[in-house]
Amino acid sequence: xxxxxxxxxxxxxxxxxxxxxxxxxxxxxxxxxxxxxxxxxxxxxxxxxxxxxxxxxxxxxxxxxxxxxxxxxxxxxxxxxxxxxxxxxxxxxxxxxxxxxxxxxxxxxxxxxxxxxxxxxxxxxxxxxxxxxxxxxxxxxxxxxxxxxxxxxxxxxxxxxxxxxxxxxxxxxxxxxxxxxxxxxxxxxxxxxxxxxxxxxxxxxxxxxxxxxxxxxxxxxxxxxxxxxxxxxxxxxxxxxxxxxxxxxxxxxxxxxxxxxxxxxxxxxxxxxxxxxxxxxxxxxxxxxxxxxxxxxxxxxxxxxxxxxxxxxxxxxxxxxxxxxxxxxxxxxxxxxxxxxxxxxxxxxxxxxxxxxxxxxxxxxxxxxxxxxxxxxxxxxxxxxxxxxxxxxxxxxxxxxxxxxxxxxxxxxxxxxxxxxxxxxxxxxxxxxxxxxxxxxxxxxxxxxxxxxxxxxxxxxxxxxxxxxxxxxxxxxxxxxx
Length: 482
Fold this sequence. Notes:
It contains 18 helices and 17 strands. It has 482 residues and is an alpha/beta fold. The protein folds into 3 domains: 7-67 and 101-163, no CATH class; 176-262, Beta-Lactamase (2-Layer Sandwich); 268-473, Rossmann fold (3-Layer(aba) Sandwich), CATH 3.40.50.300.
């Protein structure tokens, strides 16, 4: 079976058997799913002896499938416990764990998942979707009793299959999956820390899958989608992942979604970005040194290239005594106070310039302004820079010329003076510039040995928390003007 087939088509014989068998549950009990072949063969035998009930059953119900979907994968790029993302014949496919077992087990998983649909605990209004999944797992274990028919991961698969999380939003629980994208009628694709941007060849965002995602969004108090509100962005927790889910509907676009795994950010410290080839040691050290030396830093590039990820990794090197203030419309960077730094994160969708004015009296050492999207945001950046704060921000721009034109249009080109501007391609820091009176000057990173040593001392750190601990233990912060 081709891996270009949609997941539903790959499982079609199983779905047909389970759908037909569900109508006969009262007559044959759970054995239709736990002992499908034995139960069907017994029914055929009784039908041969003239039992009308069994004749009807055999007529209406296809024989249980005898083969799992063809499966030849070369490597696993993400283990989701109840499923995998795997490389299959040079493509990346979504592989339910039950596919790696046998036909009987696959029937059991799909059948039990159908039985669990619509089963909720009494206090379900106060629970998130993963709480419902855990509840259904407990119910499945009660149904199975002491029989070791399914292991924990297969029980998890059955429970997740019974919800609208399966299969697309399950991807957001992957530790190295940073973002998921979908446009109706096209395959789902993801950004993955190790594998980069990859298309999931057997997951297509059709109308049914989009409606699942829309339902998850509309469970949120502010998630209603309609003609007057065709774009919605909500946050929710999915297992151990904090997910930001944005959904668009006509007339602004075709049905589209973007799910960002905010919990992946801590696993992308500078050390890992260097290992992945996103940035060179010298450039990383140059940016950290610029932050210490109060040079304003702008990270520019298209959507989804990793601007915020890089900004977050630079902020992790902040001095332990600095008072860090971040002002974002939607929270994207980590809360570094969790690692012992003096970080005060603010989510403020309104006038960012007025927020900066407010903080003038609170004497921050470093301000992160999130993404500069409007003229008002550019004025906030200019005010923070002129006030002598260390300031870091991101912005959309393809190249220096397009960035300069935009800021001239905003009347804020003077705010670029003296700034270091890093332009990013997809997951790679490409060129570093400084904007001066004479225009743009490309900068060759030549960091001091102390900052280069600081970066090298943190290589191998797997999270920003571990990186900051290394800095603390080695007293690696470099003395700076506070």
